[in-house]
Every structure is written in C-alpha cells, then in structure tokens.
UniProtKB/TrEMBL annotation:
Family to which this protein belongs: Belongs to the INSIG family.
Subunit structure: Interacts with SCAP; interaction is direct and only takes place in the presence of sterols; it prevents interaction between SCAP and the coat protein complex II (COPII). Associates with the SCAP-SREBP complex (composed of SCAP and SREBF1/SREBP1 or SREBF2/SREBP2); association is mediated via its interaction with SCAP and only takes place in the presence of sterols. Interacts with RNF139. Interacts with RNF145.
Protein's recorded name: Insulin-induced gene protein
Broad class of the protein's primary localization: endoplasmic reticulum
The keyword Membrane is annotated on this UniProt entry: yes
TM segment ranges: 28-49, 69-88, 131-148, 155-174, 186-206
C-alpha cells in the first residue's frame, strides 16, 4: 500500500491521459495521434476561412465535407502536423539543445491563437497589394517565432517546412487540384510561405509540450526503480 501511495502523486504530475504509459513507442503513437487530430481541426477551421473569403477555390466536384473543404485537405494537414510535431523535439534531442523557452501550456495556447490570427489576417485584412500583405505577415510570423520559440533549430525547421509546403502547393495548383485567386508568386499567393512558417512553429511548440509528458513519465519510472 505504501508503494502504491507513493506512485499516485507522481502519476498526477504527468497528466491523466499518459501517466500510466511508460513505453517510448506508445508515447510516440499517442503524441502522433493527438497532433494529427489537432492538425485536422485547425485545417478545417482555417481552410473554411480561406474558402469563405474566396482566397482558395476548389472545383465543385471535389467539395466533399460539411465544412466545404476538399476531403483530402484535413487528413493531409493532420499527417503533416503529426510529422512536424514529432520532428521538433527529436531534432532538439539530437542537437543536444533541449528547448526550455516558455514551456507551459498557456504559452502554447497563445501561440495557437496568434497563428490563427495570422491566418485570419491573410483572408480578412485588405491591403493595396499582395506585397504589403506578404511583408506584414512575414513580420508577424517572425514575431511569433521570436515570442514563442527563439531556437535556431525551430527557425531552420520553420523555413524548411515553408519551402517544402509551398513547393507542394505549387504542384497541386499547377495540376488543377485547386487554385488561388489573384496569384502573384507563380501559382499561389506570395504570403503563403509565411503561413506555413507560422504553422510549423505552432505545431512544433505543441509537439515539444507533449514530449515533456514523455520525459516526465520516463523520469518518474527511473526514480521509482
């Protein structure tokens, strides 16, 4: 009974949904699933905003969800979110630079709110031209990184994610999967990389915060043994 009593407080510190999980592979799976559904939710909300403002246009025959979004967009965004969220803490671990800046859920939620605000601004705010909007969103995105991340690995991954995501989007638009109104950067809007950069930083912060639970569980188990 004494041993059981000492385990209960430690379990509560690690969080109710993961306190009993001690296998690294299972923890990885749990974090991946959580990140996937967060990505799906954000994709539905943000893509709906873009469609309502006629920023992105899908052909009528591919509209296949109650949120008026192509059916493949949320799963793809969810998968990308899971990969990004798992990659950030992995890179931190391999570089030997654990990210400790603003490591609490309140900061993560503020980061999500700022990201949604940046995406909202891309659809709602009217500028004289796309260049002004792009420069504004670029400043906001870098400000998001500076406020909630400030790591070199986070900035580098954000830039890489923005480049790859923009390249994939260019290919999708080129092949007629969907289109952007008033494209000014080949087939897309020039501010799109800023959105991808901010999204990468946001999902990286969520992934890092979730990874902290795994570290707590492993440390608790090691202490008990």
């Amino acid at each position: 009974m004494a041993e059981g009593d000492t385990e209960s407080p430690g379990s509560k510190k690690c969080g109710p949904y993961i306190s009993s999980v001690t296998s690294r592979s299972v923890n990885l799976m749990i974090r991946g699933v959580v990140l996937f559904f967060i990505g799906v939710f954000l994709a539905l909300v943000l893509n709906l905003l873009q469609i309502q403002r006629n920023v992105t246009l899908f052909p009528p025959d591919v509209i296949a969800s109650i949120f008026s979004s192509a059916w493949w967009v949320p799963p793809c965004c969810g998968t990308a979110s899971a990969v990004i969220g798992l990659l950030y803490p992995c890179i931190d671990r391999h570089l030997g630079e654990p990210h400790k800046f603003k490591r609490e859920w309140s900061s993560v939620m503020r980061c999500v709110a700022v990201f949604v605000g940046i995406n909202h601004a891309s659809a709602k705010v009217d500028f004289d031209n796309n260049i002004q909007l792009s420069l504004t969103l670029a400043a906001l995105s870098i400000g998001l990184w500076w406020t909630f991340d400030r790591s070199r690995s986070g900035f580098g991954l954000g830039v890489g994610i923005a480049f790859l995501a923009t390249l994939v989007t260019q290919l999708l638009v080129y092949n007629g999967v969907y289109q952007y109104t008033s494209p000014d950067f080949l087939y897309v809007r020039s501010w799109l990389p800023c959105i991808f950069f901010a999204g990468g930083i946001t999902m990286g912060n969520i992934g890092r915060q979730l990874a902290m639970y795994e570290c707590k569980v492993i440390a608790e188990k090691s202490h008990q043994e």
